[in-house]
Amino acid sequence: MSSAATSLLDVHALRLDDARALLQHDGTELPAPADGPAAYLQRIIDGLCELSLRDPLTGLANRRHFRAVLSREIEIVARSGNSALLLMLDIDHFKKVNDTHGHLAGDKVLQAVARCIAGCVRPQDTVARYGGEEFAIVMPDCQAAYGETVAERVRQSIAALSIPVSPLLNLQITTSVGGAFAPVWVRSTADLWIERADTQLYLAKAQGRNRVCIDHQQVISVSPEEKSLLFGNLALADSAWGDLTDSSTQRFS
Predict the structure, then answer these.
(1) β-pairing, 126-131 with 134-139?
(2) Which of 23, 44, 122, 177 has the fewest CB atoms below 10 angstroms from its CB?
(3) Which residues are catalytic?
(4) Which residues contact 133 (CB under 8 A, 6 or more apart)?
């Protein structure tokens, strides 16, 4: 924004009441109009962007932010060949917590689990609330042995929690964890990566819950969708070359 436009901007004429109310409700420090119109608007925009990427209950990344991080990591793995792990975690029998103790108790369990997971991972890892009682962790530059260790550490740390949900009641819960490494040197999709991790999560549930299952296969198996992403352009090129060859043959025969 140019200095001339800034000097003409009247922030009091803008309808910012709802934006300010959202930031205030979230506990964000409100900017001061005295800082200047441009700085004032920038701080409001930054605050709203932060809210749009964060789950309001747990403070973790929300699903939108998680998918953006996952897509970016897929690109990095495809270019660099570095190893990256996606973990999907689901609280075991969470519906029973809500049905027995109420949704307020369920919210306290979700918040405690979120804090526990965030405390088990590295600063460069992204922890997100994927939906309901399901969480996700994106772990870039993650070797197989380290990923298995972290997944077990998360599972054990959650199982060891004693979560106060009322003055007279503490709850203990467990989680099932499924994981999948991104296929290296392959430009896959977020949906395919999530599907592989979810398959391992369902396997952990089927094997009795409160356990970790990780798919270590990084390349070999390529789905039809992945084949299309990998070789679709090559197939089109081959087809075009074949058409050109046929027409050339007819021309010179």
Answers:
(1) antiparallel
(2) 122
(3) 133
(4) 90, 91, 94, 106, 110
